[in-house]
Write a structure and sequence with these properties.
The protein is mainly beta and 90 residues long. It is 8% helix and 37% strand. The protein contains one helix and five strands. The two termini are 24 Å apart.
């Protein structure tokens, strides 16, 4: 799992049936200081996140397929939560 910022959405007129009725979001991984870290990826949105939201992303295919309840779905990453706050407590 990692923290990311939603930076956009994907619109597809033709897509695999496992994606029907689901939003596909572009997420940019963040480091703990909130800076971009690595390449952006696509993730299925399961929590109604929007562009600009900081989110928690599960990036492991088998677990992601369990979340959407489809063992054959061709997906790897799922947005699991919207992050209100994170950081080191003093």
């Amino acid at each position: 799992m990692f923290i990311a910022k939603v930076i956009g959405t994907v619109v597809a007129t033709e897509k695999h049936e496992a994606y029907q009725g689901r939003k596909i979001m572009v997420v940019q991984p963040l480091d703990l200081q909130g800076n971009s870290h690595g390449n952006s990826i696509l993730a299925i949105d399961e929590v109604s996140a929007g562009t600009g939201d900081t989110v928690l992303v599960l990036n492991e295919g088998s677990s992601a397929r369990q979340i959407v309840n489809n063992d054959l779905a061709p997906l790897r990453a799922v947005i699991m939560g919207i992050v209100d706050h994170y950081g080191q407590e003093l």
